[in-house]
């Protein structure tokens, strides 16, 4: 076994771990990054499927994501706007596809008024919520003890309005049923994006993409760190820790360091043996956090046929298997690509089908939005992060009812020389690459400040 000494060892070569390593190295610290996978990027992955480039993981950049935008500029990476010209499509409870423009989809007058009213109420509550400390809201425990679904139903008797407001947090973001997480967790999700209104505005939240794919960010960071710094295929098996530092072990390496950053999703923390064991309350915390479930569907066609039909590619409905879909055509390509999402209980159901049956059901849902041409893509692929050994879900961990007020603040606290962080623990940019980069920078600054105080 190879023995190494470093100032800081980082577990995980996603955006958080690599940004922390890069900032620490820039400040003169010796670092090493241990990654279980055979690639860097974590939940960012650009890959070719049957010759077609897909962003299998995260991909979008919104105007409020200033940390990500600054990093893209720093790394010399270019962006381009998502195609959005034309009409959007909403499928009604009866299955009728309706075309529309603007933010509010075509429903009855009462439903449209209810949606507008609920967005206003949520925006007010979000404005009172600090994304860095939602548990400090004056009604935090009350909001954390009621599910988002129950709260919505207490606020409105319009089931279509409830279903659609629920969609923007449950299906589209946390990828869990809205009865499975609290109102406070929903407010954190919206507060991390600046407002609930931002979440319902696809032109804002899904504004731009990176030329060549968003995985370019971790790829360039890893390149700048150097080959000897980032070690792939090194799943960490144990961390022995004490007041003077820690020893981190993979199957091939043993690294002694003053500090450790565990930069993986919280659902993977217990894949590591901690010696001594972590405090009991932190072990309990891990048991109250979980990732959601989503299938990201990619379908590429010889031409973007929906554009000639006057459609933007933006489509959604809580009544469809694919609850939302967008034009996802890559920069400079003549082919057209749609991306859609199947989440939570709907994903449960189609995962019980054979692969061919699941594909057929998903394409039929896309055809409801775009017409029969959607049934015959040239390339089709399903991103299934729940099947990834070193992810096991998407997009971010969230707490069960009551968990955010019970354990939220605790998850940010170091344990001896060990700090934990990922986009799952972000304030602004929660569950996004922007948040991952923010957390990486914060952890690096904490270590530098601590070492500075010791000198």
UniProtKB/TrEMBL annotation:
Q: Which domain of life is it from?
A: Bacteria
Detail which positions bind FAD.
16, 35-36, 236
Q: Which UniProt keywords apply?
A: Oxidoreductase
Give one Pfam family, short name only: Amino_oxidase
Q: Which residues are recorded as binding substrate?
A: 341
Output the Gene Ontology terms for molecular function.
Answer: oxidoreductase activity
Names of required cofactors: FAD
Q: Does the keyword rRNA-binding apply?
A: no
InterPro entries to which the protein is assigned, alphabetical: Amino_oxidase (IPR002937), FAD/NAD-bd_sf (IPR036188), Flavin_amine_oxidase (IPR001613), Flavin_MAO (IPR050703)
Q: Which family does it belong to?
A: Belongs to the flavin monoamine oxidase family.
Q: Which PANTHER family match?
A: AMINE OXIDASE, AMINE OXIDASE [FLAVIN-CONTAINING] B
Give the protein's recorded name: Putrescine oxidase
Organism the protein comes from = Cnuibacter physcomitrellae
């Amino acid at each position: 076994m190879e023995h190494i000494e470093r100032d800081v060892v980082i577990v995980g070569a996603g955006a958080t771990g690599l940004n922390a390593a890069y900032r620490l190295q820039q400040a003169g610290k010796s670092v090493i990054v241990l990654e279980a996978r055979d690639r860097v990027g974590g939940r960012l992955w650009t890959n070719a499927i049957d010759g077609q480039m897909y962003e299998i993981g995260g991909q979008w950049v919104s105007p409020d994501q200033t940390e990500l935008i600054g990093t893209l500029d720093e790394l010399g990476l270019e962006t381009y706007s998502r195609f959005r010209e034309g009409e959007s499509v909403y499928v009604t409870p009866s299955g009728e596809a309706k075309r529309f423009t603007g933010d509010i989809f075509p429903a009855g007058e009462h439903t449209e008024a209810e949606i507008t009213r609920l967005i206003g109420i949520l925006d007010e509550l979000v404005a009172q919520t600090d994304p860095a400390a939602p548990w400090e809201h004056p009604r935090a425990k009350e909001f954390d003890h009621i599910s988002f679904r129950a709260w919505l139903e207490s606020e409105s008797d319009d089931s279509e309005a409830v279903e659609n407001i629920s969609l923007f947090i449950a299906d589209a973001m946390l990828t869990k049923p809205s009865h499975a997480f609290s109102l406070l967790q929903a407010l954190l999700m919206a507060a991390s994006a600046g407002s609930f209104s931002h979440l319902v505005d696809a032109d804002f939240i899904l504004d731009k993409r990176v030329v060549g794919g968003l995985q370019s960010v971790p790829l360039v960071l890893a390149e700048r760190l150097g080959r000897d710094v980032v070690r792939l295929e090194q799943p960490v098996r144990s961390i022995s820790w004490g007041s003077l530092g820690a020893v981190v072990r993979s199957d091939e390496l043993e690294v002694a360091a003053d500090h450790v950053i565990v930069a993986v999703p919280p659902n993977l923390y217990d894949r590591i043996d901690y010696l001594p064991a972590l405090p009991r309350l932190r072990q309990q915390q891990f048991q109250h956090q979980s990732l959601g479930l989503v299938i990201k569907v990619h379908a590429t066609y010889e031409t973007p046929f929906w554009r000639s039909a006057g459609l933007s590619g933006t489509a959604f409905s809580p009544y469809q298997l694919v609850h939302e879909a967008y034009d996802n055509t890559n920069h400079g390509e003549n082919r057209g690509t749609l991306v859609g999402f199947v989440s939570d209980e709907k994903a449960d159901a189609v995962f019980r089908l054979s692969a061919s049956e699941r594909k057929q059901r998903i394409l039929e849902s896309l055809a409801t939005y775009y017409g029969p041409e959607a049934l015959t893509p040239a390339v089709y692929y399903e991103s299934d992060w729940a099947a990834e050994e070193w992810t096991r879900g998407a997009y971010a961990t969230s707490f069960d009812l009551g968990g955010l007020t019970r354990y939220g603040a605790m998850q940010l606290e170091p344990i001896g020389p060990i700090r934990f962080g990922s986009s799952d623990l972000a304030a602004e940019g929660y569950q996004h690459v922007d948040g991952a980069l923010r957390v990486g920078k914060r952890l690096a600054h904490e270590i530098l400040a601590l070492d500075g105080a010791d000198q």
